[in-house]
Amino acid sequence: MARVVVVIATALLTIFLLTDISVAATTRATIRLVNNGYEGLLVAIAETVSADQSSKVIDRVKTMFIDASSELFGATRKRVFFRSITILVPKSWGDSQPYEAAKEETFSTANVVVDDAKPNSMTTRTHAECGGPGEFIQIPLEYVTGKITDVLRKYGYPGPTIVHEWGHLRWGLRDEYQVRDYPRFYRDSDNEVAAVKCGKYMKGENVDFIKKKPCTLDPDTGLPTDTCYFKVNPFNPGVKASLMFQHNVTEMFCDNDVTDPDTLHNVEAPNEQNDMCDGRSAWEVMREHSDFKDENSPPIDVRQTTAPTFRIVQAKTQRVVLVLDVSGSMNNFTRGSTRMKRLRQAAADFLLRAVPSGYSVGIVSFGTSAQIRKDLTTISTRSDRENLIKAIPKYGSGSTAIGSGLNKSVQVLKHGGDSASGGVLILVSDGKETESPMIVDVKPMLISAEVVVHTILISDVADPQLVSLAADTRGRSFFYSGSNDTTDMVSAFWSTITDTSDGTPGLFPVEMFLETVLVPANDKVVKFVDVDSSVGRDTEFTFSYSGDSFPLDVLMTSPSGQHFTASSDNSHVSRVAKQLMISFPKDTEVGRWKILLTNDGSSAVTTQLLVSSRAPTDDSYPIRTRTFLSQNKIDFKGPQSSLKLIVGVEVMKGYEPIIGAKVEVQVGSTPWKSLNDNGQGRYIIPQL
User: Fold this and answer.
1) Nearest Cα to 358, choosing from 344, 339, 378, 340?
2) What number of other Cβ atoms are within 10 A of residue 347's Cβ?
3) Among residues 469, 497, 487, 186, which one has the least CA distance to residue 321?
4) Average pLDDT in the 665-685 region?
5) pLDDT above 90 as % of the chain
6) End of a domain among 464, 482, 501?
């Protein structure tokens, strides 16, 4: 049965007139093209890679990119190559080697990741349209640990493969071979059977890979049977293109230059490149990219080597500082609560469940001035988490000194002589700044210090500068309306921390269910929560409350009929966080759980129900969803055509797409929409 995934995109699609909008997606390391050479490329090795493989993995990565740089230089007609590359190695490798400490480099911001995960072929994660950038290239561990002969036999030469994936990542090219529902063969304009290939005049033969002999035609379709494929003749002197088709036997990208038949694009082939790029060749798309547009990066005569230089850095403990607004407006009372209370609830959920053990967290507040509420505290016990929650302010007063709060947060990151670089700030505010220094004054320092700032804007009067502050520091911005439903703010907090992944599969819990539930006086409400087999460890059913004690009766029934209540051995009340938790450390029953909430009181009660869980083991992945938009910036003063947006949801289990899921989204108060499955675990609304 298809897994049902319902995604509410309200918090991710928030409109600020005349202001940038951040996309809910991880910002990757910036790659710069300087005098024909790419600089700043970050390759990260996952924490799951064993330290006893360190030398082999590093050496193989270097060799692969040295080869790829040479291949790239030739494929782009002597225009670009890799000049400098940083390799991020795991913290778990220890200090046996004198690695340089990482600064802003993290696994989650890497352009290329090396990980022991499926699929077992090199791939590029992308959800952009033709010509748009991808997210990252994934290199399976086997590429860098297997025997060279085995790797070459199974995958071919890594250098050309990296160039093929670079075409996806950098220039938004698409595959020119048969993928998913695209055919292997078609009838061309002369009604001749032709293979889906590029270049147009590439020679080869159609071979039945089962019978190991020439293909036969299917009488129903008039095309070769499903067991046939086009086998390139690698000794054909005209085989030069295309790297987006057969990168193991070609060396160039297809072009539309009719004077060069060896690289001529096959515009008739029904493949992804023609389909998504309106029939344009790879080079036609590339020439529209800033790397080559307007004669950028002209051919050069490189007399020195194209081999890149390498810098090896080691990951360090993640540091996060909450930067919380305590101005007077945070006391605004709407629908039964204040903004300050809702902030405390969302931050408590975040600290109790979302932040992994081993992370260091600090807290800063700002009103008329800024104050350090808690220096960096490394989380190892529940007591550590509750002590951090105690430091969250309860009341607001004064004006709004956002700049001071940011300055004080950097001071927290630098405590003990450490560098602020690589630190993460999560700033929450509901108003415009009123005190010096201003955001514009401190932003250059934040950028120079290589600090990431995520921002959560409460209400539509929050300072719109917070959106661009996040974008300019490689962070993300979120919007919370300030209503009585805090689910958007809870989700925003959780989303910021998942951007700090080190590649450990089960590092973060999954937010499986989140809903604000109203239970009328003298009434009952039933909710159902589905638990699938990709999770089940450290599962927590959490119920929030606002008074002195939890006011509802809870009866949870497992799929097999077992009952759990607030008095069960696995229940716990956190009076600091004001939450009732019913926990299952391992082997949570798979299936549908029934939750009965009973209110015997004379007044209606609202509780936030949050269910979270982890993957069953440290080396397994849970199913996750991620929502994204097609562009980072929207100009609301521009023409109507510039307002086109694509909303998508990615449904993945590690690096593997989940196919056939039913996915629906709701943007603001618009009707729910079903998304189309593109066959890669990504579900798309074509346009809003």
Assistant:
1) 378
2) 24
3) 497
4) 65
5) 56
6) 501
Separation CA 645–CA 173 (nearest Å): 20
Q: Model confidence over 122-164: pLDDT tens digits?
A: 999 887 889 999 999 999 998 998 888 888 888 888 999 999 9
What residue spans of 158-263 are helical by DSSP H? 158-171
Q: Which amino acid is at 259?
A: T
**For residues 192 and 260, what is the distance between their CA atoms, to the nearest angstrom?**
23
CB 156 within 8 A of CB 247: yes
| C-alpha to C-alpha distance for 451 and 445, rounded to whole angstroms | 9
pLDDT of the residue at 658 = 82
Distance linking the first and last C-alpha atoms of the chain:
29
Q: Tens of pLDDT along 266-312?
A: 999 999 999 999 999 999 999 999 999 999 999 998 777 899 999 99
Please state whether 668 falls in left (phi above 0), alpha (psi between -120 and 50) or beta: left
Paired with 476 in beta bridges are: none
C-alpha torsion angle, residues 501, 502, 507, 509 (rounded to 10)? 0
| CA 507/CA 617 separation, integer angstroms | 10
298-303 — which CB contacts under 8 Å span 24+ positions? 298/79, 299/77, 299/78, 299/79, 300/36, 300/78, 300/79, 301/78, 302/36, 302/73, 302/78, 302/81
* Residues comprising the chain, all counted: 688
Q: Which two tokens stand for residue 60?
A: 């193989």
Please report where in the chains the tokens 């430091």 appear, as a residue.
Answer: 391
The pTM (predicted TM-score) of the whole model is: 0.83
User: Within 10 Å of residue 136's Cβ, how many Cβ atoms?
Assistant: 24
Residue 70 lies in a domain: yes
Sign of CA dihedral 393, 394, 399, 402: positive
Please tell me the distance from the alpha carbon of residue 261 to that of residue 254, in angstroms, as a whole number.
Answer: 10
- Note the pLDDT tens digit of each residue in 30-80: 999 999 999 999 999 998 899 999 999 999 999 999 999 999 999 999 999
pLDDT value for 247: 86
Residues 232 and 212: beta-carbon distance below 8 Å: no
Residue whose C-alpha is closest to residue 463's, from 476, 477, 473, 474: 477
Total structural domains within the chain:
4
In a domain, 227, yes or no: no
Of 484, 501, 518, the position where a domain reaches its end is 501
HSE, CB side, 13 Å, CA atoms: give it for residue 394. Answer: 5
- Does some domain include residue 479? yes
Phi-psi domain of 459 (left: phi exceeds 0; alpha: psi -120 through 50; beta: other): left
pLDDT over 50 at 685, yes or no: no
How many angstroms from the chain centroid is the CA of residue 111?
12
* Host H or E run for residue 63: helix 54-75
Residues 339 and 455 placed together within one structural domain of the fold: yes
Cα 354 vs. chain centroid, distance in angstroms?
Answer: 16
Tokens standing for 268?
Answer: 């008739």
